[in-house]
Amino acid sequence: MSALADRMQLIASTLAARYPARVVTRRLQDFASRKADELKKGIYTLVSLGESGYANLRDRPAMDGRHRMLLIGQMQLPEKSGCDEIENAEFVMVEEVKAFLSALPPSLACLEMKAFRQSGQTDHPYAWIACELEIES
Questions:
Q1: Using an 8 Å Cβ cutoff, are 42 and 128 in contact?
Q2: What is the value of pTM for the model shown?
Q3: Which residues, in sequence order, are CB contacts of 55 under 8 Å at separation 6+?
Q4: Rounded to 5, what percent of the chain is helix, strand, coil?
């Protein structure tokens, strides 16, 4: 594997160890393709968005950049759940990501969340978040 793939795997395995009740994967799938029991637990999927911001110093092209990632959380609540319950489930996932980022091992200490998006109560009974992450390469 590449150094980037190794880093992605380390982030995913560290997140899985922190939240063993959740499913953590590197394979993004639509809600319809997910297993119902996994959606009830909540799923985190880590995907790479690329690198940028290289220093491009002499004899060191494409070095010292920023690796951007998206951590997507997906969950399905019961049909009778209110839209506010969907939003609250999303807030719980966001708070889990924040707690995860505040207790990283030294090798991932530079990982930070830049922003997050959520469903805006539009996908009932599904809840989802998308956290934009960055780490120095």
A1: no
A2: 0.92
A3: 63, 64, 65
A4: 35, 30, 35
